[in-house]
Amino acid sequence: MRNIIVLSLLLLNMHHVISAPKGVVASLKAKWNMTPFLLETSEFIGEDGNEKFWQFIDTVKELTVYKQGESVRSYYNLVIKKAGQFLSDLQVNLLRFALALRSYSPAVHASQQIASDEPPPEACPAFVSIHGQHGCSTKDIKKLVKAAAGRPKPYLYKNDHTYPGVVKTDVPVVILYAEIGTKKFASFHKVLSEKAEEGKLIYVLRHFVADPKPRNMLLSGYGVELAIKSTEYKAVDDTKVKDSKAVNAEDDDNDEVQGFFFGTLKKVHPELQEQLVELRKHLLESTNDMAPLKVWEMQDLSFQAAARIISVPKFDALKLMRDLSQNFPSKARSLTRVAVKQEMRKEIEENQKHLSETIGAHPGDGELFINGLHIDLDIHNPFSILDILRGEARVLEGLHNLGIKGEYQSKMLRLPVNAVDDNYALDIRHPAIMWINDIENDSTYLGWPAGLQDLLRATFPGVIRQIRRNFFNLVLFLDPLQEESVELVKLAELFYKHKIPLRIGFVFVVNTKDDIDGFSDAGVGFYRLLNYIADEYDLSQALVTMVSLYSKVHVGETLSVDTLTDYLKRKFPKANAERILGVESEYDDKRMDGALFYKKSGLGALPLALFNGVPLSPDEMDPDELETIILQRIMDTTTTLQRAVFMGQLTEGSDVVDYLMEQANVVPRMNPLILSTDRKFLDFTATPVVDDWEDTTMFSFLDIRDKTAVMAKRMKYFTNTGADGMSTVTMWIVGDVEKVSGRKLLLNALKHMKASHGVRVGVIDNPSGKPSTDNTVLYRAIWAAFLTQKNKAAADFVQKLLKEEKSQLLQQGTKMKDLLMQGMDVDAFEKKFNTMEVDFIRSQQLFCRDVLKLNPGQRAVICNGRILGPFEEEEEFTVEDFHLLEKITLSSSAEKVKAKVKQMGMKAKHASDLVMKVDALLTAAPKGEVRRDVHFIKDSHSVLHLSPRENEVLYDVVAIVDPLTREAQKMSALLIVLSQVVNMRLQVFMNCRAKLSEMPLKSFYRFVLESDVTFLANDTVSSGPVARFMELPESPLLTLNMFTPESWMVQAVRSPHDLDNIHLQEVSGVVTAEYELEHLLLEGHCFDLSTGQPPRGLQFTLGMSRDPLMYDTIVMANLGYFQLKASPGAWILRLRKGRSEDIYQILTHDGTDSPADDGDVIVVLNSFHSKIIKVRVQKKAEKINEDLLSETSESKGIWDSIASVWSTFEKSITGGSSKKDDGEKKKEDVLNIFSVASGHLYERFLRIMMLSVLRHTKTPIKFWFLKNYLSPSFKETISHMAESYGFQYELVHYKWPRWLHQQTEKQRIIWGYKILFLDVLFPLAVDKIIFVDADQIVRADLKELRDLDLEGAPYGYTPFCDSRKEMEGYRFWKTGYWASHLGHRKYHISALYVVDLKKFRKIAAGDRLRGQYQALSQDPNSLSNLDQDLPNNMIHQVAIKSLPQEWLWCETWCDDASKTVAKTIDLCNNPKTKEPKLTAAARIVPEWVKYDNEIKQLLRQVQAQRDTATQKQTPSPSQHKKADNLRDEL
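Structure (tokenized):
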């Protein structure tokens, strides 16, 4: 073997000179400096709660002293070790992942940003800000706090870290800006935390690094693609580029290349290192065969890749999938030789059929599920996946700690705990309701059909089906004397009269005294009168009576007895008024019931309406709105009922009202405390080392979770078990049983327990004073009974003890032994009672204080871990409330948890504990989406299985992916990292597509993600992860694209190479591309409250308190969308000064960090996640008829303060001809030219186009360039060009909105930018803009074009020439779709157009274009020339003014004769000759070469100046200084 290798190497050496490896390396850095790991760690821990954050801070308050002596790696490990005291092993892994992602860096930098806005005092390593005044040392605090009261309090943000001292609102707020871990911080922290604990001040901490080291921080969590470009038209610049230095290329030697394992060979033959590298390169180049495949070779590629992945050892399979998908173009040929087994095909097809039926996944789709949660990789990025992993970790660790593992874990996780239902309904099957009508039995409705199937009959939208069933029930709770009752009764009659299928019932809440005279109380009289009419006549007559009675009542008055007696005399002259209304009335039946039902129901203030039992909110009770609301409810309920009938849940024989009242959301009474959606839970998942509560001191040192676990372990219960001996609902009653209220609460709980199986009750004492033998007599008696008596005897005894007369006897000196009952073990009780210590009661009091946050003596109820309370002093929690609480707990989750725990087969007491603990854990977990159960019919040939480590918390991950898709490129890398971060059971199903007709992937791809921070060999931290493409084939032309999270605005900042056209054959060494995260996007939607429409043309500005106008934006009509550029920090959003602020005001906002109705909209950006806000505005009363986009003069203010559209003024250099003053005086005298370019060649054309424009006009010019795709070299040199030629320029930047259909190809994205955002790219002050393609040469004054009359059209384009006859076959617009669509109109070219922006905005042209684009772009075959096809397609909706033909001449379509009058010449591609652009330019346009040389000369001068400047800079600092910097990296 050795000889073979040596021979191969010798042969190779004859041909090859050893060359540097070629490749591409891309990196992305943050705009801000590296943030210290310690601060990021504190933010990570802070997510687990404020208390943990401060405990961690106490542990690390002087940690930075270790920086000096340690290497960076060991200091990092020290930080992790300190964090490990507060985190589990899984959480530590997630922390390492978060630090590698720099996920919390924005939170740290946001604090830094807020600090710089203060601004920090000079030379202060840390400082306090007390109501606006600053202090640099702890000595200043006292003085500043004294004087603080007179100054306004500072604004605190949601994410601020406030020290958990005594909560008071009337004390000064002290904000400490410091770096955790430094000495200065520790001294401040000591003073402030002590004062906060005494309640003298509120202490808030914000991160502040006084002297941040300028060190780049590379980010990860994004993808980089090298797409293979079509070379049909040569578009590469021939200017040579100076190569960058070679970059260390760490190759992956473990791969096998044509049978050679180079990793092993290098170990065995270290002396042949260099030659082996060459051999490997040679073999790779021979396999990197890029020759196109035949169609029959492509057909099976997806299955062949899957077969190859499944065949290798499991632990290599994911790496192979990553390699195949990310380097597919060079791996394709090798895959064509793989054989695919028939059983694999069959299994894949069976599974695909099953997946399509269960989760709607089709062949080729990529889906990822973590514990059944669907992770859509189009929406989710590594930052949000980290959040999901953390959220899941809490539940998974909880279940793991509670001993629930394996299959039971996934069963528990998938339990549908629908804990919180906003619209609970009250049971309306109650005798106190007086039903006015009954749809099912009244003769009025006899003609209606009664079948349920009629619900499914088709009707016109909005029609209410008339069916003889009580589907819709309205109950009105009224006090007849309230003024509001009048309108409600009239409305009820309206519904009745119009035969709306609504069953209407009344509950009258009137005086409940026994003997009361209807002649003195109009409410009672009213009730008796109605009863009389209902008895004598019928209920519908009673409704008529109510209406006529109320019609006599004037506005502002209430119903009087006189009105009643008058009515009675007039309508029923024979009736005996005394017998009907008097004290001895015969019509007083059930009068009390209404008031009693109302009281028991727990409903709020009258009047009230219930629709099918669901109470309407007070806002909805407005009589003007109520009619619409009821009709809307009928519509909504119809849909639900239709589903029930269709699914067979509601059948012909069933009683509809019973069906409605047996739904899960129906409750016997309404108690907002129990039903509220804001719920707090105990965490039972800890496993404390000690379980001792007799030693109070020991107990006091335990943290919240440990205290809870000890309580749960030591608790004793009164039980009323079900048949299986288990208790599903566990109530802990907290209170002071020496007080009446405490005794009553416990007594009610015991009464409820006796009536209800499966409930157990435990008691926690929360004495009002310090526990002693005197003030805990009753509680010790209860506890002694628990310890010594059988369950029933203990419960009976305690119930007797709690009765008031017994506690009175005890207080009067009766001995406890005299109160004992028969059947009790008296001796055991007495012995226990007399020897019991009170220490454990002190521990219980501590538990109440620290965990339940109760004051001594306060009461609370804990039901399966859910905390209700503290109760108000007077508040009563009745037996009915316990009943409701049990019902809610059972129906939402406890029943389901019990069923699963029962399957585990354990002892009853342990099982009851487990139900309580699991229920608390699952119900407390935030409600995400539904968990899917994804499984496969067979999984031996098509599913890759990776088993988890035993006895650790495990994640269940299922991936469905076709190995040759974009999803696979990303998912394979993501799964490899996830497997390093968490312990997972992984199944990857090969979801292959059959019969491929084209190459499935046309790009190389890298997903930049690491599971932990990496260190270099010398233990310093590496600056971060990069995308490394080595071993690329050299022949294809590549273009580099970045795929970053949705809210990132990224731009290339350094690369000498043309990143749009990378051709490795012409490059020696490595192409480096450095990108920067320039901004985080703040997106929003804005609506006008009065119209509900977006306020088109409204402008917002964003800034900091010291610089309020940093960025600005315009609101689109599509979805009221706007976007602003920002970075981590606290921002203030305002209406733009000028027309926006004059006409509009901000009313409310959502998703922001200031209260919704606050005038100042404050937004804190502190993470890499997208931030989307909603703003609602309204016109000011006096400006109600004004229009933002009206023709009236634009206020000069806007023009003065124009900073930019979406960006600050990047740079605007003004040359001699255009002085700033002139620009302001004659606003119209600036020619605005817009252009886009990508790649060095087009930028070269762009400069020449600019020069040709400047040469032909005397008008000052301002160029607007789309910044997104310009190369770093263009951005560096444009300012020099502006200086030399005297023009202004601005770089505008707009992020493609997430809701607008995304393009994937770079060229099409650029086309989109040319047409889709014209209304929002430029400030409102720009009236007209001319777009000129980069490859155009101008020969006339463009002022002519700007001043041309567009005759009412928003834009003008030049039509395509018809004069060159030999190209007739290529004129696609003359036939097919275009010929019929355009009719007699012409097809226009998009290389040059002029836009009247005022008109364009006024007719909402931008919104129409985007709407049409959204509709057409879903079809990949439409809009093949996007920027040109779209306006031509919309020609009927948005008119185009055809410009005179001479405005655009292009050799491809126009004859030579017309060239002499051409005002601009465009270098169109020629589909016939495919001539390269550079040769065409020099041939067609004589002046082009002259312009080109002039620009080259200028660029050479610029380069020379730069080289001189570099040489002048001082030599690098000493080695010693460098070592210092390295230490400070953390």
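The chain is about 40% helix and 15% strand. Confidence is low (pLDDT under 50) at residues 9-18, 244-251, 1192-1226, 1514-1529.
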